[in-house]
Write a structure and sequence with these properties.
By secondary structure, the protein is an all-alpha fold. Helix content is 66%, strand content 2%. It has 19 helices and three strands. It is globular, with a radius of gyration of 24 Å.
């Protein structure tokens, strides 16, 4: 076993989770939630210290964010339109509208403060994930109890898939992390909006919806049906007051989200049209070999939330939900709407339904509390205790597999310092890591392949210098 920063951070993170459980058992609520948030941060920090950008989506997000430092309103992959590119392509284009700008702006701010380092790319997602633990605890306490809230926050903190998303190790990484955390923040505010009939909470919920839209577009709309269910179950509230609340929420959401949407369509109409068409193609075509059967997300449930999670969710529907549908309906909507919609889509990736992760954690928290109470009252004590233990230990084991504290990641690529001092307007060919090279160096464009004679002549005529990475 190789001991390194990842090992010690993981050990410290799991120790914080254990101490949080101890503090919770002694009704030290503030300490319990603080330790959970700290543990979640430590568990994500180790993987975030991976020395190189990850080859899925993170490298593209990092490069576009780096370019946004110079021009926040012009997202580009290949910055100079005179270099060879495929306009509208998310992997080879000039203007880059594959994802909305908020996560990229945040990464750009981090890179501006700390420099073009892979770990700096991950700081915004790490901070949001830590905040999400606290928000989920607050929402769980408002909806149920401190015990349900604690277990939901704990399951969120140790979830291996969420750890990988925040640390950039898996596809959709930082945009999905932003979307999930901002949807959670919007629902935290929306619950208080409904419960207190508060315009201020409605405005905050709307702002969070708008920011979630600027993170990954239309999935942010999941907040609306969940909030409507909460409102529907409060018939004593004046209808005009409820309409006023939701009108405020929608107005603020549009005020936040629409300016970028309108600007990008006016400034880059062709690329915006291509990006929009590509998003809808996910529902009708198998893009990049990611076509999956409709059962894909349901089969993924035990891998993402523990092997006992499907049974626990079924028992939740047959027990707590059937006995008190009004109390639990909003959580079921929060879970099922994304799962059903994205099950229809032909193209599927695990991160597409990550916005439902907090709802799943809350429902599993409800079952943990119910089984703990059962363990105190009936002859099923041993079975209930085993169920509670497995609902926590199985995700914990998956978390260990993802964090892998026994393994210190080495660099996926090596870029010599000489490339960091190249002349302006240098174009590099025959590079196995073109996106990474452009991120770490001032190289204006890099390609895996060689250029044609015509392309070389055109670039040289425009003052570019062409070098091969093999030199």
């Amino acid at each position: 076993m190789a001991f390194g920063p990842n090992t010690w951070l993981a050990l410290a993170g799991y120790a914080c989770i254990a101490f949080a459980w101890w503090a919770h058992g002694r009704d030290r609520t503030v300490w319990a939630i603080a330790l959970l948030a700290l543990g979640a941060g430590l568990l994500r920090t180790g993987p975030a210290l991976d020395p190189t950008l990850h080859e899925w989506d993170e490298r593209y997000h990092a490069l576009v964010a780096k370019h946004l430092i110079d021009d926040p309103f012009k997202p580009t992959l290949y910055t100079d339109p005179n270099t060879p590119h495929i306009e509208g392509s998310w992997a080879h284009g000039h203007i880059w509208l594959n994802k909305p700008p908020l996560p990229l702006w945040s990464i750009a701010g981090s890179l501006k403060c700390f420099g073009a380092f892979p770990w700096a790319v991950r700081i915004p997602s790490l901070l949001l994930s830590i905040c999400a633990v606290v928000l989920l605890y607050g929402l769980g306490r408002a909806l149920y109890s401190e015990r349900v809230a604690f277990w939901a926050a704990l399951l969120f903190a140790i979830n291996g898939h969420l750890i990988e998303l925040a640390s950039g190790r898996t596809s959709n990484d930082h945009p999905d992390t932003f979307l999930m955390c901002l949807v959670l923040a919007a629902l935290f505010a929306a619950e208080r909006m409904v419960r207190q009939s508060s315009i201020r909470w409605a405005a905050l919920a709307g702002a969070c919806i708008g920011l979630a839209f600027l993170s990954k577009s239309w999935p942010a709309a999941i907040v609306l049906p969940v909030a409507v269910v909460w409102q529907w179950n409060r018939p004593e509230v004046d209808r005009k007051a409820a309409i006023s609340l939701f009108a405020t929420l929608l107005a603020i959401a549009m005020l936040v989200a629409l300016p970028w949407s309108l600007y990008s369509r006016m400034a880059f109409p062709e690329v915006a049209q291509i990006a929009s068409a590509s998003h809808w193609q996910h529902f009708t075509e198998s893009l990049e070999d990611h076509g999956r059967p409709w059962t894909y997300y349901w089969v993924q449930l035990p891998m993402l939330h523990g092997e006992l999670a499907p049974l626990a969710l079924l028992l939740f529907l047959l027990g707590p939900f059937r006995n008190a549908p009004a109390k639990h309906a909003a959580l079921v909507v929060w879970w099922l709407v994304p799962y059903l919609i994205f099950s229809v889509a032909v193209t599927k990736m695990p991160g597409y339904v990550v916005i439902a992760a907090p709802a799943l954690c809350l429902m599993l928290g409800v079952m943990i509390e119910q089984w703990q109470n059962t363990a105190q009252r009936t002859s099923g004590k041993v079975i209930a205790q085993i169920g509670v233990a497995l609902l926590v230990l199985l995700p914990l084991r998956a978390s260990l597999d993802r964090v892998a504290p026994w393994r210190q990641p080495g660099p996926r690529y090596i870029i010599l310092d000489a490339w960091k001092n190249v002349e302006p307007k240098t174009v590099v060919t025959d590079c196995p890591w073109p996106i990474e090279l452009m991120f770490h160096t001032p190289v204006v464009a890099a390609y895996q392949h060689s250029l044609t004679s015509e392309q070389r002549e055109q670039l040289i005529a425009k003052g570019f210098k062409i070098r091969s990475f093999r030199e």
